[in-house]
Amino acid sequence: MKTKQPFLRSIHPNIWFLTAGSFLTDVSSEMLFNLLPLFLANVLGVRTSIVGLIEGLAETTSSLFKVYSGALSDKLGRSKFLTVLGYALSTIAKPFLFFAVTWEWVLGVRFADRVGKGIRTAPRDALLAGSTPADQRGLAFGLHRAGDTAGAFTGLAIATYVIWASQAGSQLLTRATFQKIVLVSIIPSLLAVIILAIGVRDILTASDKTSGTGQAETGKPKGTWKSLGKPFIAFLCIIILFTLGNSSDAFITLRGQERGLNVIHIMLMLLTFNAVYTILASPAGSLSDRIGRRKLLLGGWFVYGLTYLGFALAKTGWQVWVFYGCYGIYYAATEGVAKALVADIVPAQKRGTAYGLYNAAIGLTAFPASLIAGILWQGLGGWSGFGPSAPFYFGGLMAILSGVLLFLLVKEK
Predict the structure, then answer these.
(1) Tell me: the pLDDT tens digits for 109-130?
(2) DSSP secondary structure letters along 20-46
(3) Contact criterion met (CB below 8 Å) for 48 and 251
(4) Which CATH number is 13-203+224-409 given?
(5) pLDDT digits (tens, 9 = 90+) for 56-86
């Protein structure tokens, strides 16, 4: 009997190059974008409702491009070009944060960065799925998420050092410190684009190989929704409901500061989250290959609900810190696993379209989710809102409802 190769020896080179690209991109992005809510609040003096508006509009922009980009990658039968193009556009946008003097300027940079993310995400996920056999797909996505989050950890560590060297002990972020971090972030972002452009190769689906064209088969087109199947449609609707309560993590950062954490403490809190996420992502993905994706998603959403309840009830900064560490368990158990589930329940030649719709659904829902969170926290107009705990109570409630629907409506093969 032929012995099966160990995963790490048999893995397609695409997984390694895509993981390396995501690692370097997150080194760059996380040292910047985790500090944006503090930059907006501490330096530019904007309200949390504006923070929610910026995050929501940025994710909405990304989502619209994800739909088109995913469908285009299926039509072309080629995903590499769109993947590299998306990473390159984000790389070009980031340096302009150095010159930001208004929240509108920040919104413009976030817009361009999210366009890049929207272009690359679905084709990249399709490449990941197509480069791995089904029985190792969870581990492959988990490995990619681990690399991505290790990059986030590294980026946050670098940013923490810059903050410590520039303004140790300060409660608020300064413009000079933020500008230094912008400059440092340019190098890993450029390296990511170079590695992806040189290393990644396109993967042909079974239908592509059969046709011998290198492009998706043509003929009478099928309706997009019908061809994706009922399990995917049900899962997509549940994800939308869950995401409605899952506002931008910027609000957790602001919650930590509101409970007494200074800038260095917040950076260490984010490092704790990313360390937990990085360590658990690959084992969680591998576990989903053995016990099923749905069970792990339900477990992750249960942890999410408890964690959001903890954020709502937290009385001190260190409590927010502890719960943010637990938040990493939720991410490890769900992010890569959910994408592996999408690949399991849709036809191979429709994965780009499916990932485009999946990522778009999350991003489009992020706009009302972040806006609702900002309004619940600080109100709008003459209304003062319910206070800092309200967004987290709302998120926990949505998680419970979504978990029930996932259990009842989505069945795995």
Answers:
(1) 888 998 898 899 888 888 888 8
(2) HHHHHHHHHHHHHHTTHHHIIIIIS--
(3) yes
(4) 1.20.1250.20
(5) 677 677 777 877 887 888 788 778 899 999 9
